[in-house]
Amino acid sequence: MASTADFKNGLCLEYNNGLYMITEFQHVKPGKGPAFVRTKLKNVKTGKVIDNTFTAGHKIVTARVEKRAHQFLYKDDMGYHFMNSETYEQVMIQEELINAPTLMKDGQEVDILFHAETESPLTCELPAYVELQITYTEPGIKGDTATNATKAATLETGAEIQVPLFINQDDRIKVDTRTHSYGERVK
Known about the structure:
The chain is mostly beta strands. The protein has strands at about 1-5, 10-15, 20-30, 35-45, 50-55, 60, 65-75, 80-85, 90-95, 110-115, 120-125, 130-135, 150-155, 160-165, 170-175, 180-185. The protein folds into 3 domains: about 1-60, SH3 type barrels, CATH 2.30.30; about 65-125, CATH 2.40.50.140; about 130-185, CATH 2.40.50.140. It has a 6-stranded antiparallel sheet with strand order 1-6-2-3-4-5, with no helix packed on it.
């Protein structure tokens, strides 16, 4: 058990029969009335963010979660298979728990969030940017860059994203895993 005085960003708590992580909080002491804490809570499983207000001193149940480094091994009809980087144990995760499964390639390092009491995986997050090679894109036309024009490109994982016209086939680029968008060209 904890109280609102223990709030900090990243604290995971059990609320409304689910696990929520505090993304923002603010202690408010109005001139009239009791103090309270305004929070933004992110559902760990669905990613939905809700606003909630707790009265000061409110007791909450905290949940222990652990983030562990894993390496992506392969995908089959059962799900995605990962190996713990320290203990070499393997874990299988369903696609809906992964934030960007189409941008993941073999050997990719990821962080998997586990509920410590049940040892069940909650989410799997790729790094903010991943480096991937373009396997196919139409050639860019010289002088056609007056605007922020883009074209479709297929990556080595099979995913399709929009890239600027100057990007060519076999170029390596950084892709933002949160938005599935082009970041920059890698030299």
